[in-house]
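Appendix B. Raw example, untouched.
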Amino acid sequence: MTHTQRRIFLVLIAFLLLLMSACQTSATSNTTHNTNNGTAATVPKPVPPTLLPNEGIDKCPTALDSIPGCLTPHQLREAYGVENLYKKGWTGKGQTVIDVVSFGSPTLKQDMDTYDQTFGLPPIDLQVISPLHETEYNPGNSRSDKAGWAGETTLDVQVIHAIAPEAKVIVMTSPVAETEGTVGLPEFLQLEQYAIDHHLGSIFSQSWGASELTLQDQKGQQELQKWNAFYLQATMLKGMTIFNSSGDNGAADYSDLQSKHLSTTPTTSFAGDSPWVTAVGGTTLTHTGTNFTEQAWSNSGGGFSRFYMTPDYQKNLPADAQSQAKNRRGVPDVAADANPNTGMAVYQGGMWNAGGGTSASAPVWAGLMAIANQMAGHPLGFINPALYKLASQPATYARDFHDVTQGNNSFPPANVQGYAAAKGWDAVTGLGTPNAENLLPDLVAAMHK
């Protein structure tokens, strides 16, 4: 065989090997979707989870008999169209949600074991990270403050796990209490930068906030500039999706750093007011058997920012919403159950309670996002433009969202006139609550266009 013949022979062998490899890949790979940059990402076919004995239970523990509106994880998934996705294997597997809190909970692991066993959920993949080596600072200087954060942490994690049972949850704890003004915000920013630098996950769940009225001074504005730069980079360059509760004081919020005086005028809070964040408001979710109805929760934070102008994705909202906004960022973007009287059963420190507040609604959406990223095969990143685009099409909106049209967030304790829930977007429940079975596939498709 001449040198030329040998070269031709080797080229043919190489071509055959390449062809065989391509055929094998085609035979074993699953559906692919185009990512935002035009490349193809292979999406593993989901494997339906093995159902445990108590999975699908529709009765809260007897300790909650005094709260007839209490929800189990199964009922919460049913209400928001997640259960059918769960049965098909869309469970958040392979995804990580990062929950950012102060202090954390010393009983979290034990509480999660009891919670999972009670409701037949798979054991949670849980990690707690405390990378900040600073002196503990708690302005309230009381055990009750730390107990409150322990309850917050447990609520966040159990709601996320209820919605996306096979997603990993990383709890990042700060030794500094986040209260009002800039207190605790620099430490939270360090935690989130650490999470991105160490590639810990693609979803932030934030159930905290500081009233805009406490961030108006120079120190507050300088801190917000740092967060704005970080959020821009996190969402647009790092593929992060960020959810933040809209607050639990209706259209009002605190006006002082000690959280003693409520404002007498409508206001919103950071970080839900940020245009780079998906702000989550609250509803009252009632049920009779498998029939669910919702109205706005009266304590749901919502309104218009004094710091941020209307982002592009809100500029096509109907005229009545635009006239209310007056070129200001509207809050929230979406909503989920937040009324403690209709909340999900939560186990913490040896006791059962019904979880509530928009601190419960933001983790619902964080769990949904884990499923959406699993479907896409990659982090979807900044979803707000896609959410509003889907909602702008009447047929798609009716299919993807539950439009909440009853209730308001006027806040009598502060004598503040709030906003009414209305058809389409409103400053109490945003675009509404999810019908995940339709919304998540539509969201993935919209992000790929």
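End of appendix B.
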